[in-house]
Amino acid sequence: MAAPILQAQIDINAPVSTVWKLVSDVERMPQWSPQCRWTKAIGGVRQGARMVNLNRRGMLVWPTTARITELVPEKKLAFRVSENHTVWSYELEPTEAGTKLVETRRAENGTTTAVSAFAVDKFMGGEKSFEQELIEGMNDSLARIKAAAER
């Protein structure tokens, strides 16, 4: 299944260091993401660390695993989800007013796995609907991070 790059961004009136503390604490992901219910970084947040996640959409609950693929303090955090081969990233850029935060989901080679495509088609309303929901979730996540950083 072809998987377009999904992206959302927000300007935050807080320094990069403040935003980084929130984004890099992956175990706080359930506070930001409407879909994520639990995340644990095995052995702490570091390059190569494994993550275990529990996601929920309505009555549907599913686990995923991931590996942190990039960790550049105050610049970028990225992790690759094992089950569907998508890479999620958060990139931070200083601005005059604070920080620009960009969240991106891209699929390796432009496609997700056959199992993921089947699940999205059968249980999540199809590719277009699910991708729109993911973008809305990304915007919600960024708004929640912004609110926490600006407090």
From TrEMBL:
Signal peptide (from-to): none
UniProt xrefs under Pfam families: Polyketide_cyc2
Lineage, top ranks: Bacteria, Bacillati, Actinomycetota, Actinomycetes, Mycobacteriales
Protein name, per record: Polyketide cyclase
